Amino acid sequence: MALHNELTRRLGIAHPIIQAPMAGGTTTPELVAAVSNAGALGSIGAGYMPPDAITDAITKTRALTDRHFAVNLFIPQPFETNTDRIEQANAQLDGFRRELAIERPAPPAQYAQPFDAQFEAIANAGVAVFSFTFGQLDAARIERLQAAGTAVIGTATTPAEARALAADGVDMIVAQGAEAGGHRGTFLAEFEQSLIGTMALVPQIVDAVAVPVIASGGIMDGRGLAAAIALGAAGVQMGSAFVTCNESGAKPAHQRALLTCAGRATTVTRVFSGKPARGLNNRFIEDMTPLASTLPDYPVHNAWTKDIRAAAAQAGNDEFMSLWAGQAAGLARATGAAALVASLMDETARCVGRMNQTDA
């Protein structure tokens, strides 16, 4: 089934599907290239990468595909390094470290990668698509990218955020519904007031802005893509569906958790990183939740839990891992990225066909 519109033309893709730019190692060059080679848009999640690693990832991806792909960054937000909060959190985290037989690490040299240098690495590489989340990119940088032929995509969790991004001049907007896995992109209000479901959010943002809208959150198959198009979206962005692909860099325990999560609840929590994010519930979340209001800011807390998450992944213990997942993760399937894209389009065609059927 062909679904061609302004989004597919502008991004140079055959199918209105974007693989979400999941940072932290999930979006390998192999996954990104496989998605793009299948006619959708692969995305490098570069938020945690130093500039040279970003350049390397772009180079490796280009060696695997001649199609367009995106690179994504996190817009930096002010944060405080509160030593009292760090010590209070570590007093609890040390208990998990003892169970995992690891020692508390030394304080990190830096809590976040230098955004200016990250951005320069991407701008100098001349990528086809740049996307961002957690805030607004300044108009000068947007114009610089667009002048070089790069499409710019922002992320909104409310109509107000979408209007702000459109006023900044972005080419497209991801409407991140409350069902979405991973970190919330909210930047204009508290996240509790910005948890709007995808089905309610998409048509509001479509009506609020004149640029193409990309639906995200709880979309795992062709039924979700068909529903998003019906709501006025020009395409979809999908994360959890690609976590379990063969080419994904997600840890095996994370993939297993998604593939066997039927009946397992997801929750939005700050306890892994200091920033609200949706993932499968586990013991780490339950034990740390009483401290949630006193945890260090993001990305400080994220840096201090990294050793625990890594050791748990190494041990295959998903009770101490950040198992980012959307609310429809129970529909995850183990497959290749190209096969997934083909299945999504076939499922969409069948769904639209059913909607077009009428009783004689």
Give a description of the structure.
By secondary structure, the chain is an alpha/beta fold. The protein folds into two domains: 6-76 and 112-251 and 331-354, TIM Barrel, CATH 3.20.20.70; 82-110 and 262-324, no CATH class. The chain contains 14 helices and eleven strands. It has helices spanning 6-11, 29-37, 51-64, 83-100, 115-125, 139-147, 159-168, 198-208, 222-230, 240-243, 252-259, 283-288, 300-315, 337-356, and strands at residues 17-19, 42-45, 69-74, 129-133, 151-156, 172-176, 182-183, 213-216, 235-238, 266-269, 277-280. The strands form two sheets. Strands 1-9-8-6-5-4-3-2 form an eight-stranded parallel β-sheet. Strand 2, helix 3 (51-64) and strand 3 form a beta-alpha-beta unit. Helix 2 (29-37) packs across helix 3. The mean pLDDT is 97.
Question: Characteristics of this structure?
Answer:
360 residues; alpha/beta; TIM Barrel; eight-stranded parallel sheet; three-stranded antiparallel sheet; 42% helix; 13% strand
Query: What name does the CATH topology of the largest domain carry?
Result: TIM Barrel
Mean pLDDT: 97
C-alpha geometry: globular
Helix content: 40-55%
**What is the CA-based Rg, rounded?**
20 Å
How is the main sheet built?
8 strands, parallel
Low-confidence stretches: none
Give the helices and strands as they follow along the chain: HEHEHEHHEHEHEEHEHEHHEEHHH
Structurally, how many domains make up the residues? 2
CATH architecture of the largest domain: Alpha-Beta Barrel
Which homologous superfamily in CATH is the superfamily of the largest domain? Answer: Aldolase class I
Number of helices: 14
SS strand fraction: 5-15%
The number of E-state strands comes to 11
> Helix/strand/pairing class, anyone?
alpha/beta
Q: How do the strands of the widest beta sheet line up side by side?
A: 1-9-8-6-5-4-3-2
The CATH class of the largest domain turns out to be Alpha Beta
Distance between the termini: 25 Å
